[in-house]
Write a structure and sequence with these properties.
about 270 residues, alpha/beta, six-stranded mixed beta sheet, 11 helices, 10 strands, globular, binds adenosine-5'-triphosphate, binds magnesium ion
Length: about 270
């Protein structure tokens, strides 16, 4: 799967230009985090990827087909979008109905739907909640119900809008496992996040947005080493990365073991010189 944006701009009906001139290509089973300050245009960009919003300038193609050629319902089979707020997404009486709704709507047979419900319930930890009303779920469970409903469509790419927002520690761990499983199945995962620890732990590529434009696009190590540029979008690297940068370690580290290793490297380097 290939999603290509060429000179994409987007203006809301109010006249506000939320995306300026975006050129990006997402391909294969890449995992991509989109970060940047509030109002940078992340959600507006993410909603273009399956046609919830359509470019007002430029072109967006999915596997070479222009987004305008199909409806959002048709694109949802290829690219799923998980809303930041599950209340914007969930509207049925039970988790099971939420899970079954999308695939049933596109004619998936009941045996396949049942098989997918079992799998998705286990991935999202909602095995015992299938007959519960979504309104009676905890905030974390609700979030997973929204995620599960999108996975049920078996799309090639899944876009998560701030999936860690409101999660507890166990929820974060489950999300990590769920994304790992989706990546293992060859799916493209794209997530908007303000949680830099989550970003560096789960994604191979980071796109930084600022005022409707892409500020930096690269591997996490490349992106988080550019502290001065990042400040333009009020993004600060993860805490351990900042500590390492603060003590002058040149290598960009994301974990405590990497930090310790970098300190050892500096120490053995200075011992060798003395
Ligand atoms: N429906 C709308 N009508 C008019 N302007 C909007 C609308 N939705 C968003 N905007 C504006 O477009 C800009 C980009 O908004 P967007 O929601 O894409 O930002 P974001 O990067 O997702 O921010 P956040 O991190 O707060 O979720 C902001 O200035 C926002 O106020
Ligand atoms: Mg947003």
């Amino acid at each position: 799967m290939k999603i290509e944006l060429s000179n994409v701009g987007y203006s809301y009906k109010s006249g506000h230009q939320a995306l300026d001139d975006i050129n990006l290509c997402f391909e294969g089973d890449q995992s991509v985090a989109i970060i940047g300050q509030n109002g940078a245009g992340k959600t507006t960009l993410a909603k273009q990827l399956n046609g919830i919003l359509r470019p007002t300038q430029g072109t967006l193609t999915i596997d070479g087909t222009e987004i305008s050629k199909r409806t959002t319902a048709q694109w949802s089979k290829r690219v799923g979008y998980v809303f930041q707020n599950p209340d914007d997404q969930l509207f049925l009486e039970t988790v099971r109905e939420e899970f079954a709704f999308g695939p049933r709507n596109i004619g998936v047979d009941e045996a396949t739907i049942d098989y997918r419900i079992d799998k998705v319930a286990s991935l999202t930890g909602l095995q015992d909640k299938l007959d519960v009303h979504p309104a009676d779920l905890s905030p974390t469970e609700k979030k997973f119900c929204g995620i599960g409903a999108v996975i049920m469509m078996d799309p090639d790419a899944i876009v998560f809008d701030e999936p860690t927002c409101g999660q507890d520690y166990a929820g974060d761990a489950r999300l990590h496992d769920l994304i790992a499983e989706l990546k293992h199945e060859g799916k493209m995962c794209i997530a908007i996040s303000h949680d830099m620890k989550f970003v560096v732990a789960n994604f191979d590529r980071v796109v930084v947005m600022c005022q409707g434009n892409v500020l930096i696009d690269g591997k996490p190590e490349e992106v988080f080493s550019q502290v001065d540029v990042l400040q333009k979008s009020y993004v600060t690297p993860p805490p351990i990365t900042r500590v390492a940068q603060g003590v002058g370690i040149e290598k960009t580290v994301f974990t405590v073991p990497q930090f310790v290793e970098a300190i050892e490297d500096v120490r053995s380097g200075s011992e060798n010189r003395s």
